[in-house]
Design a protein that fits this description.
single chain, 381 residues, alpha+beta, Nuclear Transport Factor 2, Chain: A, OB fold (Dihydrolipoamide Acetyltransferase, E2P), five-stranded mixed barrel, 18 strands, 23% helix, signal, DUF4431 domain-containing protein
Length: 381
């Protein structure tokens, strides 16, 4: 017991030490950021969004305010030829926000900058930059004002005039910069409830917050799940309630209930086709007719009772859990079966040509005597 407690204590100590090493100081963060100013992940999502919108509204006659994030970060043309001196830095609000004063030195001159930093997760990001030597507003405000000026000159660049991109939620989450401020159409499961209103491609994965919702607030408080198609503007800066979401959809113009699509389509397939082309059906839902043999260390399906060589059959993976008890007796009979096919699993001793798992339908077609036919996981006839 003592040895176990000592081992547990050492594990806790190691975890604490690792956490301490991962927690960077403000000075280390500023050095990291100015050491790789081109890395977009060094910038808070709000500032990245302002830069992307400024570039989106630029044209041949109206250039973006800054060519790159690095140019904007140092207010210079050559971000590779600078050095940074940190004058002072302090954090506040639960170590989530910070302010730092730095001197940015170039070859011929230097200027004093005030940095606003944000730590949404485990490391500091640049949220805004202000040049103390310049009467102009901060970087974020300059970008925003310049974007609005471009839109007033060329209103056709406004989001409302864009074509709608039909895109999956997974694609938006994987490439937020590419779709930021664009009009999108997404389909998914909308979950609404108290302090919750989001759309998901998969409820087990991240979703997108739905902003500027048109349905009355009392309706959105009721816990509901609906398959919906939503059209609006994707904004990677929207984080929803308690900043839980990695993006959101605003200015919603379409919010329509649709029939849910089946998670996976079942493919009817012949035994010969499955044997000859297993790659075509790997990890797909299939429906297959065949002859099942059950016995000691044997649970497999074959084309017929005259073709029962192990290499020409498919192992039944989750046999015990999803096949009714009355159909688990030793022997052989014809069945119609639905499940997921896996070409890389080969059953007992690796002798079968593949494996069928997640069995959702197991129907005996020609039964041996004294066996009651049961369909769809246990419904007696």
């Amino acid at each position: 017991m003592k040895a176990g407690r000592r081992c547990f204590f050492l594990l806790i100590l190691c975890a604490f030490s690792h956490s301490a090493q991962c927690s960077e100081t403000l000075a280390q963060a500023i050095t990291r950021i100015y050491g790789s100013p081109q890395d977009r992940m060094n910038y808070d999502i709000w500032l990245r969004g302002e830069m992307l919108e400024n570039h989106r509204t630029a044209s041949v006659t109206s250039k973006p305010l800054f060519d790159t994030l690095a140019n904007a970060l140092c207010f210079c043309h050559n971000p590779n030829d600078i050095s940074v001196e940190i004058r002072q830095a302090k954090s506040f609000t639960g170590d989530k926000f910070a302010e730092a004063e730095i001197t940015l030195k170039e070859k011929n001159h230097s200027h004093w900058l005030t940095l606003q930093l944000h730590k949404p997760h485990d490391r500091w990001l640049i949220a805004d930059v202000d040049n103390i030597d310049d009467p102009l507003p901060s970087l974020g405000r300059q970008l925003h004002d310049d974007t609005q000026l471009k839109l007033s000159i060329a209103p056709q660049l406004a989001t409302n005039n864009q074509k709608i991109a039909d895109v999956t939620i997974a694609e938006l989450l994987a490439h937020p910069d590419e779709y930021h401020s664009r009009k999108v159409r997404v389909r998914g499961l909308v979950l609404t409830g108290f302090e919750r209103h989001a759309i998901y491609g998969d409820p087990q994965q991240d979703g997108l917050w739905l902003e500027n919702f048109l349905v009355p607030y009392t309706v959105s408080r009721n816990h509901t799940e609906e398959s919906m198609v939503v059209e609006g503007t994707f904004d990677m800066r929207v984080s929803g309630h308690l900043s839980q979401y990695p993006g959101g959809i605003t200015n919603i113009t379409r919010y329509e209930k649709v029939q849910p699509t089946r998670a996976s389509t079942v493919t009817d397939i012949s035994f010969t086709d499955l044997l000859q082309h297993p790659d075509n059906y790997h990890q797909k839902k299939i429906r297959l007719r065949g002859y099942v043999i059950l016995g000691f260390e044997h649970a497999a399906i074959y084309a017929n009772k005259d073709a029962m060589q192990r290499e020409n059959g498919f192992w039944l993976g989750n046999f015990v859990t999803n096949i009714p008890l009355d159909l688990q007796k030793d022997g052989g009979y014809e069945v119609l079966i639905e499940g997921s096919f896996n070409k890389d699993e080969h059953g007992h001793m690796g002798l079968s040509a593949g494996e069928i798992t997640d069995i959702s339908h197991y129907e005996a077609i020609a039964l041996p005597e004294n066996v009651i036919q049961i369909k769809n996981q246990g419904a007696k006839e």
